[in-house]
Amino acid sequence: MPTRRRPADARSWRAAGVMSGIGAHDTMDTSGRSESTGPAIQGLTLKFPPELERRFHEDYFQKSVVQVRIGQIVGALVYAAFAIIDPWIIPDVASQVWALRAVIIGCFGLLFAATFGPNFRRYWQPAVAGMVLVAGLSMDIVLIIAPWPERELYFGGIMLVVMAAYTYMKLRFLPALLVSALLWIAYDLADVFIRDTPVAILVTNNLYLFGTNVVAMFAGYHMELYIRRDFLQRQEIEAKEAQLSRVVLNVLPPSIAERLMREPGTIAERFSTVTIMFTDIVHFTQYSSRVAPEELVAMLNEIFSAFDQLVEKHGLEKIKTIGDSYMAAAGVPTLREDHPQAVAEFALDMLEVVARLNASRSEPIRIRTGIHTGPVVAGVIGTKRFAYDLWGDAVNTASRMESHALPDTIQVTRATYEHLRDHYELKRRGPIEVKGKGEMVTYLLVGRKT
Question: Is the pTM of this model over 0.70?
Answer without folding.
Answer: no
